[in-house]
């Protein structure tokens, strides 16, 4: 630097004052620039010491409420612009959207538990004028359990011979503080019997379901109604099924239609001779004409039936698709239709 000044201003008395003035100006500019870099500009700063709240284990009813405390540790007023949740089950609100420096505000969040099950992790995003974290996440998490659970939810006893007797079991378990009361069970079909075993403890009991031969070919299904004696869930219903293979193997054994009323779904059925005997499909007769189908030949004993556009309608529940074949012992096959509306 000294050499630069010596080159611009030779060492003469008349230039001494100008030289000193210029040097002071340059040094002052450098010092000012260093001060600006060393001290950041004033800004708001959003902080939350506990941004995650775990409510533990709760039953699937009622609500969970929690207040998140948000602080402004910056130098300017923090403005909360918006609150956004990842689920309609979260209801956040804030009374004061302007938080002064060193101030704080509560953000209460309500989590509706009804209709939810299993592990939960939901987020509320806080949009603010914080330049570093303009979007700050607040999380609510925990586990939601049924007041009374049934495992498995549906009982399938498998593929069995027509004269075989098969036993399956279900476990009924109460959660929370309430215990089970007197448990009874009843089947709506003579194809199965059900027995309630002695109580394991006040909150659980095992049920045994036994198939009663002889069973017809194809899929046999029955409803099992259980009274639990539980204050919140006094009764529940499940489905028990079993499959007896016959001349044909049908996969899947039923047409399951899941969707909103009026939607269209695609389904496929594979029809195969268990003995590899050659046969032909002569007709596919749906319950009404709005169910077109295409028959694809895999080989002489194996076919695929494609339904490209089936309407999801409540009226189809309990109906069947009739398949006509030239098989000597099984000229007709009925494929049941089940409907689950969302």
Describe this structure in words.
The longest helix has 23 residues, at 16-38. The chain has 342 residues and is mainly beta. Residues 4-9 have low confidence and may be disordered. It contains two helices and 25 strands. The protein has helices spanning 2-8, 16-38, and strands spanning 46-47, 52-59, 63-72, 78-85, 90-92, 98-99, 104-112, 118-128, 135-145, 148-151, 155-159, 167-174, 184-187, 192-196, 204-211, 218-227, 235-244, 248-251, 255-259, 264-273, 281-285, 294-299, 302-311, 320-325, 332-341. The protein folds into four domains: 2-38; 46-145, Sandwich (Immunoglobulin-like), CATH 2.60.40; 148-244, Immunoglobulin-like; 248-341, Immunoglobulins (Immunoglobulin-like, Sandwich), CATH 2.60.40.10.
Mean pLDDT: 87
Spatial order of strands in the largest sheet: 2-9-8-4-6
Main beta-sheet strand count, sense and barrel state? 5 strands, mixed
User: How many distinct helices?
Assistant: 2
The CATH architecture of the largest domain can be given as Sandwich
Query: What's the overall geometry?
Result: elongated
Number of domains: 4
The number of distinct β-strands equals 25
Radius of gyration: 37 Å
User: Can you identify the CATH superfamily of the largest domain?
Assistant: Immunoglobulins
List SSEs in N-to-C order: HHEEEEEEEEEEEEEEEEEEEEEEEEE
Query: Termini, distance in Å?
Result: 80 Å
| Secondary structure category | mainly beta
* CATH class categorisation of the largest domain: Mainly Beta
The name CATH uses for the topology of the largest domain is Immunoglobulin-like
Q: Could you list the spans in which at least 5 consecutive residues all have pLDDT below 50?
A: 4-9
Estimated helix fraction: under 10%
